[in-house]
């Protein structure tokens, strides 16, 4: 099935039309289709090929859905760079049954977490589709291959910056060639990428600029919790807490006293209390400790494998 879908993407990219329609992931809003110029897709592919120093004949693997930009761009990079592309159905451990080693593979975090034993077979691994939890990042930091966490979205034609997870400046994203970044009045990232047809794209991602073409991602502006006048970044607090054996995230809920209160949402079929996470909470400041812990049996995920925080929070009301 995926071989046919990948072949169709390749055929569409090489036909006479000058654009492709691509569906957004839906992780921060309703999924929608947007038109992307093929010239801009070619430029994006070339940026990645140059940044990662990939050469004709290098072996790459498509193990993500070719319906979304991450999978589509893996196919286009192979076309543009003359890479040797293998295709396998998306799964938690996509290279477990494959014999080849690979020069480049792109995965989402849940695939990476399930494939730790196989990762040394990948020379250059790029991880997209969402944040990497601290526990997984600690494990990746010990591996010898090149491992990059990417920043991007459908509107930027996949990633426009990467940070090397197993390096001394692992928190810092470095922009690809031809990409300029700045901040708006909220401290949110603004992207300027003429080669991609992107001009002053204002995001909702709060960042810290740390030099030309370098930034640290702090969290989503629309996820900020304002509790009694104190602004809390859920993603930053999650990073402090680290991995605890459960899938979880932090969010804000309306509170008559504080305006909003910070809560912890955990994927679990059993009821959990603060006692279960006491050691993690010791790492946090006074105002960073969640006021409530709410368990949900199963989180809502997007089709591309990202956590849909907004839809998962709706389950609390239900």
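^ structure tokens above, recovered residues below v
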């Amino acid at each position: 099935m995926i071989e046919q879908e990948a072949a169709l993407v390749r055929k569409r990219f090489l036909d006479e039309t000058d654009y492709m329609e691509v569906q957004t992931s839906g992780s921060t809003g309703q999924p929608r289709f947007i038109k992307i110029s093929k010239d801009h897709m070619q430029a994006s592919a070339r940026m990645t090929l140059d940044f990662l120093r990939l050469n004709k004949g290098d072996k790459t693997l498509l193990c993500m859905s070719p319906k979304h930009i991450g999978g589509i761009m893996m196919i286009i990079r192979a076309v543009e760079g003359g890479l040797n592309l293998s295709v396998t159905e998306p799964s938690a451990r996509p290279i477990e049954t494959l014999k080849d080693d690979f020069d480049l593979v792109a995965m989402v975090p849940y695939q990476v977490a399930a494939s730790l034993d196989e990762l040394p077979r990948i020379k250059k691994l790029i991880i997209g589709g969402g944040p990497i939890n601290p526990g997984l990042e600690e494990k990746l930091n010990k591996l010898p291959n090149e491992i990059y966490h990417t920043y991007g979205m459908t509107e930027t034609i996949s990633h426009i910056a990467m940070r090397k997870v197993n390096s001394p400046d692992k928190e810092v994203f470095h922009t690809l060639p031809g990409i300029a970044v700045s901040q708006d009045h909220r401290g949110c990232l603004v992207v300027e990428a003429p080669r991609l047809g992107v001009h002053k794209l204002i995001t909702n991602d709060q960042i810290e600029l740390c030099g030309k073409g370098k930034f640290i991602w702090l969290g989503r502006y629309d996820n900020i919790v304002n509790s009694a006048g104190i602004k809390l970044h859920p993603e930053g607090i999650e990073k402090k807490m680290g991995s605890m054996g459960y899938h979880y995230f932090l969010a804000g809920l309306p509170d008559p006293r504080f305006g909003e209160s910070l809560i912890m949402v955990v994927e679990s079929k059993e009821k959990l209390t603060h006692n279960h996470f006491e050691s993690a909470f010791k790492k946090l400041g006074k105002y960073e400790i969640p006021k409530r812990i709410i368990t949900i049996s199963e989180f809502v995920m997007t089709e591309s494998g990202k956590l849909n925080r907004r839809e998962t929070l709706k389950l609390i009301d239900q």
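The chain is about 25% helix and 35% strand.
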